[in-house]
Amino acid sequence: MKNRILFISLAVVLAVSLGLIGCAPAEDEGPEPSDKIVVSFSVSKTGVLKDIHDFAFGSIYPVYFDMVDTLTIGGVTFDVETDARDDASSMANMLDNTEAIIANIEAGTSHFLFGPTCTAFLEAQAPLCAAAHVVQMTCEGGATSLIPEMGDYEYSFINLSFSDWFQIPVLAKLLAEAHEAAFPGDTPHAYIGYQNDDHGLEYSGVASEYFAQEGIVIDGLFPMDSGDTTANGGLIAAAAAADSDILCAFAYPEHVFGTVQTAAGMGYDPKAILCGPGACFGVWGAIVVGDLADGCMTFATGNAKTSPAMEELFNDIMEPVVGFPGLDFWGHPCYYAALQMWAEAAEATGEVLASGFIIDQDEYRDYLRTNKFTTCFGETWYVDGPDLNWPVPDASGGLLNYKCHTGEVGQWQSGYVEIVGYEGIGTAADPYDLANYVVTAPFIYPKPAFPAG
Known about the structure:
By secondary structure, the protein is of the alpha/beta class. The protein contains 13 helices and 19 strands. The protein folds into two domains: about 35-165 and about 330-405, CATH 3.40.50.2300; about 165-300 and about 405-420, CATH 3.40.50.2300. The strands form five sheets. An eight-stranded mixed beta sheet has the order 2-3-1-4-5-6-17-16. Strands 8-7-9-10 form a four-stranded parallel beta sheet, sandwiched between helices. A three-stranded antiparallel beta sheet has the order 11-18-19.
């Protein structure tokens, strides 16, 4: 009898245990299949970063997704929708938006994340993406401080050119050689204004290193705080007092939209002026600055002359929609290349499950880091940073290789941003091995004097 009771008791326990196990939810069932593909991002539609968003990634992604509004996965065509959330130029809002987007990706109601509007936001978003194993496909923003740590941010892909990737090295060599040619034996002097945040600190630090390497003396560094309406006047007064040959304003549109006008108004007309984000926009030279733009410099990765693919991007795809003022000679080639790589990787790694779309973020990441793509730059690929290996080692995200760029430095000449370079750039003798670089006009140094009046 006791044996029978024991047997029954064990049977009941086993049945209950099995029942409990059967009722328990699966630990990780993965995202639900979706009837559409959703691309999400937190961007600065309002606030102090609005001008960067409006003329940079914000002006190209609507054009791209109007053309590429479907993707075909495993023979099934899915509509592509964008989910653009305004962070109002607030770091806290951007982080909240990112966490919400990541939750949606984990649930399957969103599938891809593109990066935010500036360097500081990009770097703050990267750890969230790494922890969640969600690919961060960035557009605006540099990553100088992330390069040594790319192994920790294995889901981050950086697409824009930036300070030491590979703008400032080219700029420093270009200015030093041009000054020596025009003023033999004279030492060039520069004054640097910088946005007082991660972006400006990055650029002023890298410029200090590479300018010194090329023999350019920095007379001073002037911080430009966000919202400080006196910043341009302070910078120009300091540069004029030092009689610096070269003026660099590594700042956002809120400042560089007025830097040149302030210099002209205060009677300071240096041999070279370079302005950061803002001067690369068509609107800067065509409307904001006008005739004062001639000879001023900006950063630029391409124009309509650097290749047939770039001609198509600028003249046939972008300008008919946004006009010349809406062009971005620094960012648009990089952003368009990123979108092209995203589409190929999405179609290659996306899956159809129960007639719905799903994406495995690890497979998507691995495809990006181990393949070469054909984009507006031509052959395009990611590297892991310092040692420039390809394919990118395991457990790394990547940076779009600067050797793919068709330009780094532009100069406004007769109402257009020409790609300029030092002697021998893009040839076998180029110390930086920039074989893809295309010079579209000779560099003018000193720049033309500001028009009278």
